[in-house]
Amino acid sequence: MVRLLPHSLLQASACTRHARGTDDADAAGDSFVTGQRRCRQLLEQGDPAPEFTLENQDGEEVTPEWSDVTVLYFYPKDATPGCTTEAEQFEEEREVYEDSGATIYGVSTDSVGSHREFADDHGIGFDLLADPEGEVAEAYGVLSGDYAGRATFVIRDGEVFRVYADVDPDGHAREVMLDLMETDALDFEVGFGGEDIDVDIDL
Questions:
Q1: Which of 175, 124, 115 is nearest to 148 (CA)?
Q2: 188 is a domain residue
Q3: Calpha distance 1→59 (Å, rounded)
Q4: Number of structural domains, the chain?
Q5: Torsional class of 118: left (φ above 0), alpha (ψ -120 to 50), beta (otherwise)
Q6: Is 201 helix (H, G, I), strand (E, B) or coil?
């Protein structure tokens, strides 16, 4: 189930259909310009974050709250090598994110059932949200054909705070965390080499 607020619907209506390109999930992960359908504009820093309701891997409706820091990452397809690496690494860092007050959501155009199998197989404890019609991916400007391109948005107070496009899935979870450590909104306690580093962050 997808519910988009009016701003999100307007953003999605800016998308057009293209006859060129490929619907391949790997291509979608690398670029937003291939595929039959793409959105003209990736959301940018300072844009209002479209609100939505999607089902997670347990079939529960989830409406993310934008008042706190949220890491919303889009990926092409469950169980592919890059998407598995990215999800597993976000899971490895999940406790650090959550202890600092941030929430992680993964979104793809896969079904709830696919998400459930993927989460079970790889021990993913955060919400994987199913966007089978690609409406949320369109609203954020990342839809490529039938797949979401690989992109991450950090959202706070209802606005896009950081945008990562065409990311390398290997190391991305740590990359986002380290970037947030350099700002000043969250309270990270991160262990490196057995040492705890306390960093006060306030976006």
A1: 115
A2: no
A3: 10
A4: 1
A5: alpha
A6: strand
In a domain, 82, yes or no: yes
Q: Is residue 144 part of a domain?
A: yes
Active site residues: 83
Whether 181 maps to a domain, the answer reads no
Handedness of CA 6, 7, 8, 9 (dihedral sign): positive
pTM for this prediction: 0.78
Report the alpha-carbon distance of residue 95 to residue 182 in Å, rounded: 19
The distance of Cα 110 from the centroid of its chain, to the nearest Å, equals 13
> Collapsing DSSP states into helix, strand and coil, what is residue 82?
helix
Nearest alpha-carbon partner for 153 in 85, 51, 5: 51
pLDDT tens per residue, range 185-201? 676 654 443 344 444 43
CATH of the domain at 63: 3.40.30.10
| Cβ(70)–Cβ(64) below 8 Å | yes
Cβ atoms < 10 Å from Cβ of 32: 23
Buried b (16+ CB within 10 A) or exposed e, 41-80: ebbeeebebbbbebbbbeeeebebebeebbbbbbbbbbeb
Residue 14's domain spans which residues? 3-173
Three-state DSSP at 14 gives: coil
Residue 34 has pLDDT above 50, yes or no: no
